[in-house]
Structure prediction request, 107 residues.
Amino acid sequence: MKLAIGIAALGLLVSACETTSGFSNEPSFVMVKTEPNDATITFVNGTSCETPCRVGVIDEVPLTIARTGYKAHRMVLTRKTKKSILVKLERTVVETELEAVELPDLQ
Prediction:
């Protein structure tokens, strides 16, 4: 009988630990990668990092990803965000190939 009561108490203790562990103040981390690399991630507090960048998330983390020649991308990371994400940046300038032609002699 004492064994059954001990096992039941242990089961309650373990289940209590499992339910409270979801409310931790420890951050989860998200690896943010971009295509192309070396974009700047700017956070609302003014800090920044270059991609790829590991971001700690406790609640919500609003951020902007930017790179010269590409549209800025705004997003919010949460605890539900995957552990690694890839953001494909969209070019703002269309690259076109120039046709090589001979220039006239300017003499």
Summary: Residues 10 and 16 are 10 Å apart (CA to CA).
